[in-house]
Amino acid sequence: MLQRLRSNFRLSIITLLGLCAVLGITPFAIYRFWQGNVLAGVADLLILLAICAVVIYAWVTDDTRRSGLVMAVVACSGAVVVALLLGVVGLFWMFPPIVTSFFLTSPRLAMLVNAVAMAILMNFYAQFQSLEMVLSFVATALVVSTCAYLFAVQHETQRKRLANLATLDPLTGVRNRRSMEMELQAAVQAHQRNGIPFGLALLDLDYFKRINDDFGHAVGDEVLVNCVDVLVRNIRQADQLFRFGGEEFVLLLPGVDGPGMQKAVAHLQRAIRSELRSPGGPVTASFGLATLRDDDTADSWMERADQALYQAKEQGRDRVVDASVTLASALPA
Q1: Which listed residue (132, 156, 247, 275) is catalytic?
Q2: pLDDT digits (tens, 9 = 90+) for 287-308
Q3: CATH number belonging to domain 177-322
Q4: Where along the chain do its domains lie?
Q5: What share of the chain in percent tops pLDDT 70?
Q6: How far apart are the first and last CA of the chain?
Q7: With left for phi above 0 and alpha for psi between -120 and 50, is residue 195 left, alpha or beta?
């Protein structure tokens, strides 16, 4: 439970707001009923129940985007209702949802929700002591919203930057091993649910250590970057490329069977042969292939492709071996 809260910022905000609602609104709902203000008490109670329902939905489904938006709408709508029922005193309840909406949904949607809430209040300004008071409140709310918007945009930018650092390889710009492991798990689940075929190709640049030893790591890095460029230009948009480590790359091909994967990889092998160069001459690659089987886990699928790659290197390199056919035969392109 604590781990989910630490790893999911929006879920933690939804949960915190739900807890604050229980602790903050419940006493006021009781007070309204005790005073005989049944309508305001019922409004508080409905707001509280709606917020709790959204929190439960977020925890059960992990759909924090939709839950966050609904929570922002419920909180702002509830605050507007309370303000209209209680008058000037109720205006103070607008500030918490105005700020928290920027943490519950995207900055643009939060600004829209807040603007609609302010417009509704302006439309019923006659219920308050004076138009000047309502305008002063709206101006204050706009300043708070603007500050919260700027903070939320900055936070979103930093979050995306951190996400890129966590999932992208800094040298080549393709996704890293951690991201690959998540996508392989997702592919296995998609295959089990819907029967979608997937192909997996591991490729290793042949004799790459010689390039580093003879010409330096800077040249080796340039070859890796150029290799990624060749691969990206010769794969489908739906295919996913990952850097597994060193000179090894992984290609995930959704919606392909064994023959389709062999054809695609043969094309990649020819492209690498003709386009990839080092100061020592052309650079080639060895490939190990494996199509996803019904009984595969992500680890077993990866292991079969790795064994096929090992066979390709053992049989002389610059070869394609398909584990789903046989590990004893190589398929020259």
Answers
A1: 247
A2: 999 999 999 999 999 999 999 9
A3: 3.30.70.270
A4: 2-167, 177-322
A5: 93
A6: 51
A7: left
